[in-house]
């Protein structure tokens, strides 16, 4: 008897599905996914011993009712080892799929998820929730145009990076196809830290000079110039040209040695020290003895 009822129910369901329009089937599937998502959210919150409140900056210039900047609050479960990026992904997937932010590698390599977290520039994927005061306030990087929510326009930052012409131009090329441009271990150590830059923009965002001078090259671009200018494989004339670029009005001399860029760099690059060393190199290159 039960088998007959089951078969009859399945037949009725199939007939109902066939009678539904494509739009109705999509709507039903969407509602089912929503119910499953709500259940997953409920299960995670039940399993978590603690929950954390996120206060997230929201802004969408393309939607009239969302074009006024505001903060939305989201309650997320807290688990050991959870990062701010993990929490953002949970909030987006669980509460609001329109929540917009950048992320990629989740290993502090791509630099795409630099954010202003509890008043400091940090990488979302590297910042542990347990190390922060709760509730956690998450904003886009300051001093940059906000595109939507936590996403900022990085175009100006990239332009400054390219302005220092970040590529080698040696005096001589190696002889033979298999020859290399050799670098001593000592010189490699000198420039090693400068090569760690992941173009996240945290340093530029923290810099008070950059906030007031839109033409200032900024710590990241000057560090990129340092990486090549201090490399012994760099051509002599090319190094002089590069020093001319970074010693211009909006170059190294605008740095006020506040160390804010060094403090927020997620790769621990001594940016301020590199800027000061380039200042010394610029002075030496202009000294003439007859």
From TrEMBL:
Any one Gene Ontology BP term: respiratory electron transport chain
GO molecular function: 2 iron, 2 sulfur cluster binding; 4 iron, 4 sulfur cluster binding; electron transfer activity; metal ion binding; oxidoreductase activity
Start-end of Acidic residues biased regions: 9-18
Domain (Succinate dehydogenase/fumarate reductase N-terminal): residue spans on this chain: 54-158
SUPFAM superfamilies: 2Fe-2S ferredoxin-like, alpha-helical ferredoxin
Domain 4Fe-4S ferredoxin-type residue range list: 195-269
Residue spans of biased composition, Basic and acidic residues class: 22-44, 175-187
Top-rank lineage group of the source organism: Archaea
UniProt entry keywords in alphabetical sequence: 2Fe-2S, 4Fe-4S, Iron, Iron-sulfur, Metal-binding, Oxidoreductase
Region span, Disordered: 1-47, 167-187
Pathway(s) it belongs to: Carbohydrate metabolism; tricarboxylic acid cycle
Named cofactor requirement(s): [3Fe-4S] cluster; [2Fe-2S] cluster; [4Fe-4S] cluster
This protein's record includes keyword Chaperone: no
Family: Belongs to the succinate dehydrogenase/fumarate reductase iron-sulfur protein family.
Protein name: Succinate dehydrogenase subunit B
